[in-house]
Amino acid sequence: MNDSSRFTIICPCCEATLTIDADTGALISTEEKHKAVGSFEDMVKDLDKQKQTREQIFAQEMSSHKDRGRLLEEKFQEAKKKAEKDTKIYRNPLDLD
Fold it and tell me: Rounded to the nearest 10 degrees, how much is the dihedral formed by the CA atoms of 73, 75, 76, 82?
């Protein structure tokens, strides 16, 4: 195959090199970018940062979950008041037969 029948594309996300056939659009080959292995201390720091992020997200979800019950109760009370004010008679369409 000549070079004009292939496209070489670099992925913007993972920086992998993709080789694609121009005629069929099929993927011919991929090469992942080799990442440099960091030191053990750097890996531990990254894990600590990830742990802190997870704990912050968990705390946010717990606080929103505590308020959820109150918000649902308020919405229920509002809907109940609205239903009491409504005087329109609703009929089941299946009962009209």
Answer: 150
Domain count, the chain: 2
Residues 6+ apart with CB under 8 A from 26: 20
The pair of three-digit structure tokens given for residue 50, joined into one six-digit string = 């990830």
- Tokens at 66, concatenated: 């505590």
Q: Cα separation of 63 and 65, whole Å?
A: 5
- pTM strictly above 0.90: no
- The single residue listed with the structure tokens 């195959």 is 1
Q: Give the residue with greater pLDDT, 95 vs 11.
A: 11
| 24 and 2 assigned to the same domain | yes
